[in-house]
Amino acid sequence: MIATYEKYLSVISSSKIPKNISSTTVICDEIQLLGDNNRGANVELLLTLLRSVGWRQFIGLSAVIEERDAQDISNWLDISLVTEKNREKHLNYECWSNTGITILNTKAPEYINEKKIPRHLDVTEPLTIINHLVEDDGDNKPIIVFCMKKQDTSMLASSYVERYKNPDTISNKFELLPDTAAAKKLSACLDNRVAFHNADLTDDERLIVERNLKEGLIDVIFATSTLASGVNFPIGTTLFYSWKRWDKNVRDRIAISPSEFHNMAGRSGRMGTEHKSGRVVFFAANRAELIESKQYLQLNKIPPISPQISPSQFKQIVLKLVSSGLCKNRKEIIDTICSTFSGKREEDRNLRSYKTWSEKIHIAIDYLCDEGLLTEKNREYLSPSEIGSAVSFSGLLPDTGVYLLSFIRNNINEIHQKLPSINKEGALDKLALQVFYYCFSSPEFFEMPTSLPTRFLPYQLDSTQLCTTSSLRNELNNNSVNHIAANASFLAIKWIEGESITKIEKIVDGISAGVFRDLINNLNWVLNGLSAILSSISDSKTISPHSILKHINEQDLAMIKQLPRVITRLTFRLYEGLPDQALWLKSIEDVSDQFTLNRHEISYLIEHNLITPERVSDGSRDADNIRLHAFSKVKNKHQKANWLRDTCKEWKSLQRKKATSRHIKKSIQLGLGEDFKNYYTSLGTEFEDAFETLLKKVKIKTEKLDTRGKFGAPDFLIIIDNLQPIVIELKTKKGSGLVDYNNATEVLAASEVYNFKNNPCVTLCHPGVDPSIPNLIITCGRLCIVESNDFGEALLRVASNNLSLESFWKWLTTPGQALTRDLPTY
User: Which of 189, 215, 212, 184 lies closest to 200, judged by CA?
Assistant: First the structure.
């Protein structure tokens, strides 16, 4: 008899929540306790935390365990066990060998039957059996064939098409996507109702395959574990091409665990499909494998859950427990961690090791205190520092947070020199190389003495050198270069420069488009965490006296304030895979969604110098030809080319008009309709009057500086209690005119003349600023530019109490361009 703990905590009924729990937010947030790659430890520790606050009945662990163990675990966790002893749709397990077919059905698992193999079939030729199942009129299709190596999926799919289908048939379903290696192979398979699915596929390629599978257009799909869990497709048969996987530790192929086997087998016979039951087929090539494969037919001997928490995770767990407010001192932390299922299992299995847990937890706490992530008063009360909270909620390992902050501290001058400016073309990409390298060489990707990596770089990067070590040493200011991290950084730079994915595939043998996109996604994860950490230390008062940044001066701190927006810009470029000057092209879809621009189409435009709004909207014959070639695979290419040309002419002005209309409509509800209307429709001195009136209405103090007799003075001071006054200059342009570089930076000189040389400065641009300016003014240090629409959005949030004045001040004083998307949300 089997007891099953269903997967997550998402089916908790609100009626089951005890009345004495005042806030469930902190508890539910703990599901992200250790990041996506440590899900088991998340759930296990969360169970313990829920138990501690009184939750008794919920759906818990993702494991199948023997009933004799289930009751013990239920008693220990003090929860009600949710059981499901019968499947709605049963599975028929078939082990094919030279001696016949061994059959077991989940409806009566105690009975095992034997059946002869049809004479024309050979178990040593799985493709013949797959084709036999495909051609059978039964309830077999579609068939998912699980392989233990991703190379096998594409190879077997191609071999199957070559042997049993028409290999000359080419699908056009991938013609609008980049011509990757995987897309080429899939094109030869899909119209034959055959496909493969693995990590080499890009997200777009996977979506096409999955859509065809859901629509019943695929008979057989060869897949790795990418289709083993978390998905629900109408699969009739699960077939294991192999059930052994290479283990580098023992240097041999070993059988996958029964729990993994049954999880993969469960892809067939799903609820909501037309199949009456599911079929599971696997093979035993010899007598030894036949004996070993019997473990998959013993449904009452599935192994119990295994521990998920280990000492290598103590630093992250401790930081999470303290930052979330769940533990306040060392004793509470030790009691919580040692009372988890992992702790109790360790106590039973290895008492000597378990007795070291308390000491190791103390060491983890000491480390976090030494690095300024935690503070401790008299060894009785623990609290997170601002940096500690940021590291905790970033999802990064504490070691990674410390490593990256050390990089910032040690290279602060070099970073400052590489910040983009009008005189340093290409400086941002040099900074990107340095930032990417340190992210890739962090503990997030490489094992450290006290922590294990949570993400991994492709092993193919270890066998090549994409750039010279000497040049990298100079660029990175580092005598010891990790060549794997350097290679990954080199590829990431190619990506944000707009290099096509097909060319990137050819740089390193074995790096597929899908694997490379995973690398980029992992880098983006770390960069977002770093940006969040840096944002938290923009105020010098938050720097712990024990922090690794304790010795930085005010000038260095001012430079650090510039980094979050620079890094955010890099994450946007990584997401899109485009150079900085081409990012605006993605926003024209906000104006007209008649078409979308793919990355490879934009890359073609960049390659042919159609990159500025003026060039893209050029109506000359040469520009027309370039646009047509960019959309050569699109059926209505002339229509799309005309759409691009015309939309670029009006994209920014329409964008501003929409925002203006939305703001005026919303301001009416706040009793500010007339004030916002004057603000958006005025120019020159009338705009200054409208600005002053509007700020007064939203209760923001201003002081007019540009009065009669003061030549060249800035326009206003914005005054917020207990914060440094902001010098603000208003610049307006008629029609669709945009503020240029000289007008945008004029406020700096004016502020110095009138003794505000240390104050933050802002240029308010109405209606907007030239798109090339924001990236050039970051090194001005104390200058922020903001367009009237973005400023209007901030004022609306202040007026509706959705933005504090302190947050408004911080948003407006961060160097660079203040954008609506950077405003904090509550």
Answer: 184
